[in-house]
Design a protein that fits this description.
The chain is built from three helices and 13 strands, in the order ββαβαββαββββββββ. With 242 residues, it is an alpha+beta fold. Strands 1, 2, 3, 4, 5, 6, 7, 8, 9, 10, 11, 12 and 13 form a 13-stranded mixed β-sheet that branches. A hairpin with a 6-residue loop joins β4 and β5. The radius of gyration is 17 Å and the shape is globular.
């Protein structure tokens, strides 16, 4: 349901950049004032699914890394299953992460190509609205991460992040609610109001939010039996800046 704290804005990729039907200044102001902004149709559904499926297939070929080694592997591509209490937020969670800290090397071409396209467009948008000059090299830098909240198990309890240096969080939907999963969404707490975007975000949309807002992921298809060989569930692409 649309609330006073959410805004859906049409978007598209033109001349190599994600453009929205509002100025970058207005977009940044809306987000930093606490509104949840959803850029509709930023990416095509088919290309979002291709990226998701390529990441899933790559992850099946990997030996999982240990969650405790997450930051030690900040220069590497690796797959990890996160469960229990998170080290950073001290919050209950369960999800699979596909971490592409060096996505131009040592990955299949069918994964490198869509990752490069998605990440380059998202980086350009992110820098425009934050004023940062983030890249995928150096320190700090952007760390692309594809997250799978599997049907029957995936969730992330309420948590927060520091505002700086990230400023604005990005969540790009790589699966379609009602088709690739039935229930589960991301929620936010904005000025004491609980905001759920389940009915607002479709595959290919990019959700933008002030990074220090409390947020969570509600259980995904919790009535289902977990199938570790299935890609069913909620998939997103995020860019963390650290």
């Amino acid at each position: 349901m649309m609330t006073s704290k959410t805004k859906s804005i049409s978007a598209r990729i033109t001349e190599g950049a994600i453009s929205a039907e509002t100025s970058d200044y207005e977009l940044a102001q809306d987000i930093l004032e606490g509104n949840i902004v959803i850029l509709k149709n930023a990416f095509l559904p088919d290309e979002a699914r291709q990226l998701r499926d390529s990441a899933f297939n790559w992850g099946r070929s990997q030996t999982p890394s240990a969650p405790a080694d997450f930051y030690a592997l900040k220069n590497d591509n690796h797959f990890c299953t996160h469960q229990g209490v998170s080290n950073g937020q001290k919050t209950l969670h369960y999800y699979h992460s596909y971490n592409f800290n060096n996505f131009t090397r040592d990955l299949p071409d069918d994964l490198t190509r869509p990752l490069t396209r998605f990440c380059s467009h998202l980086r350009e948008l992110y820098n425009r609205i934050t004023g940062n000059r983030a890249s995928f090299a150096g320190d700090p830098r952007l760390h692309p991460q594809i997250i799978h909240y599997p049907s029957g198990a995936g969730f992330f309890a309420k948590h927060t992040h520091l505002l700086e240096p990230q400023k604005i969080g990005t969540i790009t939907a790589l699966s379609q609610p009602g088709l690739e999963y039935t229930s589960g969404s991301v929620g936010f707490e904005v000025s004491g109001e609980l905001v759920d975007i389940a009915a607002l975000q479709d595959i290919g949309d990019v959700t933008l939010f002030r990074f220090d807002l409390p947020h969570w992921v509600t259980p995904v298809d919790i009535e289902d039996r977990v199938d570790r060989d299935s890609s069913r569930g909620r998939w997103v692409l995020t860019l963390s800046y650290y």
